[in-house]
Design brief:
The complex is a heterodimer. Chain A is of the alpha+beta class. Chain A is built from three helices and twelve strands, in the order αααββββββββββββ. The longest helix of chain A has 36 residues. Chain B is mainly alpha-helical. Chain B has a single domain, classed as Arp2/3 complex 21 kDa subunit ARPC3 (Orthogonal Bundle), CATH 1.10.1760. Chain B has six helices and no strands. The chains are: A alpha+beta, B mainly alpha. The interface between A and B is large, with 50 and 50 residues.
């Protein structure tokens, strides 16, 4: 009887110690604002992959069957439109081939191996996103084993959506440009009136529904609707030059403020992020 | 028997977290915070109901482990959830001591828990400059839809809770 009580006390003591350790860990984490350790990342990676392949993919497949059936009704009209576009595509593809071969010849003549605009893309799917919707992060099913590195740009069909901020073995975390608190500033370039102006994308302004960009170049006037693309000045392995970020909405510069800034409407649609692609600069080692 | 019950509770909460994650995956995205945001909280509601059925120091151990799991897997190490889960265990032990809830009582308790959790996390996000989401928009576009959505789910949670609950011998 006494032995049993002693055993129970020991067990309770152990449980109390573990609980206190966990609570202390929580408080320390909050105070130090520490990022996830490798063990936490591996654990998160494993759970996210299991959930995606065991639960979400089968559900996606079944719901996909219904939406495919509905889309079948519009196939005839879509086919006619696509046939029209195919003629244009053949002309564009021929022109693209001519320009590509000219570019290769120019590279040979000038002894340049890679251009800042050279990149290849790796298609991937979003397997998880922050359940609480505060962090503006998504998890993709490409990781270190596929050559993904921190700082790589991630794009959707309409433009840049974010950068890779954490890489695990089989998955990676992407911080979206729609984040209100930018962890790293993205170097961008505004093409207006045939000139290029450089700046840094700081954060997303939820009130204005636009990116806030601090301009580094001296600017007198910027045209509304000017294209904003990545400048490729982030360094080796970061985003290449020429990926569409958005279009210029407004530009503010007063004599009282030292720095001028502008608002840019995002080109990417953040409401549809099922399929994305990671951009790898060709010259990145 | 006691440990078996604890395992059963853990597995129930894990399944609820997976269901939360799956629901949120198929709900419309709102990364730009321009429209309604709904956060499914089946795991939190189930935890709020189950925690009272665990006796002794295991109750806080259960709360801490659930908080750690949620923090690591679903909220990218936002460790506030460990404290929130322990706080719920404390409230359920010393403030709201009722052993078994009726359907309405359980729904009200679950919704109040979600309300407090959302407010605490929003406050944390605000003071750490993670968000500039205005309070009125947070209340109308996130908190209210989340509470309504989870109120409906709370009936299902209560039904499941009554089916899995067993007395500890």
């Amino acid at each position: 009887m006494y032995k049993r009580r002693e055993k129970l006390n020991k067990h309770n003591k152990r449980i109390v110690i573990v609980t206190v350790v966990l609570i202390v860990f929580s408080v320390v984490t909050l105070l130090l604002n520490r990022s996830a350790s490798s063990i936490e990342s591996i654990f998160k990676d494993t759970v996210a992959n299991i959930e995606y392949y065991v639960i979400k993919t089968p559900i996606n497949y079944v719901t996909g069957l219904f939406s495919e059936y509905n889309e079948l009704k519009n196939v005839y009209e879509e086919n006619a439109q696509l046939k029209e576009q195919l003629d244009k595509y053949a002309r564009e593809a021929a022109l693209n081939d001519v320009l590509s071969s000219e570019l290769e010849k120019m590279k040979e003549l000038t002894n340049i191996d890679f251009l800042p605009t050279d990149y290849k893309v790796m298609q991937t799917t979003v397997i998880a996103r922050d359940v609480q919707s505060w962090n503006n992060e998504v998890t993709i099913n490409l990781g270190e084993s596929s050559g993904i590195k921190e700082g790589m740009a991630v794009i959707s069909s309409k433009g840049m959506i974010g950068t890779v901020t954490q890489v695990n073995e089989l998955s990676a975390t992407v911080s979206l440009l729609s984040s209100e608190k930018s962890t790293s500033q993205l170097p961008v370039m505004i093409i207006s009136g045939g000139k290029e102006y450089y700046g840094l994308l700081n954060k997303y302004d939820i009130d204005k529904k636009a990116y806030r960009i601090t301009l580094l170049s001296d600017v007198e006037k910027l045209e509304k609707g000017a294209k904003v693309v990545t400048s490729g000045l982030g360094g080796v392995g970061k985003s290449p030059k020429g990926i569409l970020v958005g279009t210029l909405e407004s530009y503010t510069s007063t004599s009282e403020t030292i720095e001028s800034s502008c608002l840019v409407t995002p080109s990417a649609d953040f409401d549809s992020l099922d399929y994305v692609a990671v951009v790898q600069r060709v010259n990145s080692k | 028997m006691k440990e078996n019950y604890l395992y059963k509770c853990f597995i129930t909460i894990l399944i609820c977290f997976v269901v939360d994650s799956t629901i949120s995956y198929f709900l419309p995205y709102n990364f730009t915070k321009s429209s309604i945001t709904i956060v499914p909280c089946i795991g939190l509601m189930m935890f709020a109901l189950l925690v009272k059925t665990i006796e002794g120091p295991e109750r806080y151990f259960f709360a801490a482990v659930c908080g750690v799991y949620y923090s690591v897997v679903y909220s990218n190490s936002l460790a506030i959830y460990i404290l929130i889960y322990c706080l719920i265990a404390f409230v359920r032990s010393y403030i709201i001591k009722i052993d078994s809830f009726s359907l309405i009582e359980s729904s009200v308790f679950c919704i109040s828990t979600i309300f407090v959790e959302e407010i605490v996390v929003y406050w944390l996000m605000w003071i750490t400059n993670m968000t500039n989401y205005p309070l009125t928009r947070f209340l109308l576009m996130r908190l209210l839809p989340t509470l309504i959505f989870n109120f409906v789910l709370s009936f299902l949670v209560y039904w499941i809770y009554n089916h899995i609950k067993i007395e500890v011998k």
